[in-house]
Specification:
cytoplasm; two-stranded parallel ribbon; Tyrosyl-Transfer RNA Synthetase; mainly alpha; binds adenosine-5'-tetraphosphate; globular; Tryptophan--tRNA ligase; EC 6.1.1.2; ligase; Rossmann fold; 3-stranded parallel β-sheet
Length: about 350
């Protein structure tokens, strides 16, 4: 595999209720990657959002709210490229080409579709089924080498690699003939990790914290105020035992494990370090400290989001600037893909 220029891409859906899982598993890590990589693209993936029904007016507001969350969390739009997916046509265009590369059997294995479609599979949109192919196109339109995501996206990243590999193999002759060497697409590395790679519901430690959970008590929203955060943490499900003093003692205790993981991530330490301080403590004391940490981390983000969404003109200008810069990278890549596939292009 030839060396590709390092480039980070990731996205968040504008589907409401941005929560602590999105923040710790994704957005906060986007911020941390900015100094390490010259090019980072952070995308509000609105084409993904409409794979399930979205009220049009709410969708517009949500696109601006996710953009505000990116900026409020510390993504610098002058340094990183912040944009919404539907403004850059190459995502959808490449997705079609990838639809003809990906195999039905690969998509049939995607667990997220099974979970989201549930029993009413016949009534799910084709877009929901095809979601992982569009995600591969999002990433590979930029030939991104690194993608920071939560653990729930691991399988989709594997599919992205499979599509890249199959494209590189199927078109190997044409890739070389057009001067792109041995491979056109990188095999993208997922960046998954840390104690909050999978933040779980506060009501059920076996279920992922999720935007669509009907219970607002299952998640801490980025826009929750200090009182709401305190109430949700205090009501979070736990068991009757005190905290263990070693990580092994968290086995079989999903709710305890989740709260310790959240605490560790907010404080930027390991679970071991948290238990060194709180091993043997009752949940009441631990939850008090967790509230303080969560309010300290999220309070300024929520306040800044509120300030930013009050000025939609500024947000729209950030998105327009980001889209132009994103397209400047994606357009030549798509042109090359069209040549490789054998299409005749307007020149
Ligand atoms: N619980 C989580 N823990 C850690 N990371 C998470 N992410 C989502 N939930 C958790 C990560 O956040 C990024 C953006 O996710 P998304 O909004 O694009 O899609 P999602 O994973 O479908 O979000 P939700 O909250 O789970 O929504 P619903 O309820 O619609 O399914 C991704 O990097 C994701 O891994």
């Amino acid at each position: 595999m030839p060396a590709f220029q390092e480039l980070v891409f990731s996205g968040v859906q504008p589907t409401g209720n941005l929560h602590l899982g999105n923040y710790l598993g994704a957005i906060r890590r986007f911020v941390a990657l900015q100094p390490a990589y010259e090019t980072c693209l952070y995308c509000v993936v609105d084409l993904h959002a409409i794979t399930v029904w979205q009220d049009p007016a709410e969708l517009t507001a949500q696109i601006r709210e996710v953009t505000a969350a990116f900026l409020a969390a510390g993504i610098d739009p002058a340094r990183s490229i912040v944009f919404n997916q539907s403004q850059v046509p190459q995502h959808a265009e490449l997705a079609w080409i990838f639809n003809c590369v990906a195999r039905l059997g690969w998509l049939n294995r995607m667990t997220q579709f099974k979970e989201k479609a549930g029993k009413d599979r016949e009534n799910a949109s084709i877009g929901l089924y095809d979601y992982p192919v569009l995600m591969a196109a999002d990433i590979l339109a930029y030939r991104a080498t690194h993608v920071p995501v939560g653990e729930d996206q691991k399988q989709h990243l594997e599919l992205t690699r499979d599509i890249a590999q199959k494209f590189n193999n199927d078109f190997a002759g044409s890739i070389a003939a057009h001067g792109h060497g041995e491979a056109f697409f990188p095999l993208t590395e997922p960046l998954i990790g840390g104690p909050a790679a999978r933040v779980m519901s506060l009501r059920d430690g076996t279920k992922k914290m999720s935007k669509s959970d009907p219970s607002d008590y299952s998640r801490i929203n980025l826009t929750d105020d200090a009182d709401a955060i305190a109430q949700k943490v205090r009501k979070a499900k736990t068991d009757a035992e005190p905290l263990p003093s070693e990580v092994a003692g968290l086995a079989g205790r999903p709710e305890a494990d989740n709260l310790v993981g959240i605490f560790a991530s907010l404080r930027d330490v390991t679970r071991e370090e948290v238990l060194r301080d709180y091993g043997g403590a009752q949940f009441s004391a631990f939850k008090g400290a967790l509230v303080d940490l969560a309010v300290e981390a999220l309070g300024p983000v929520g306040a800044e989001m509120k300030r930013l969404v009050a000025d939609p003109g500024h947000i729209d200008a950030v998105l327009a600037d980001g889209a132009a810069r994103a397209e400047a990278i994606a357009a030549p890549n798509l042109a090359a893909v069209k040549d490789i596939v054998g299409f005749v292009r307007r020149r």
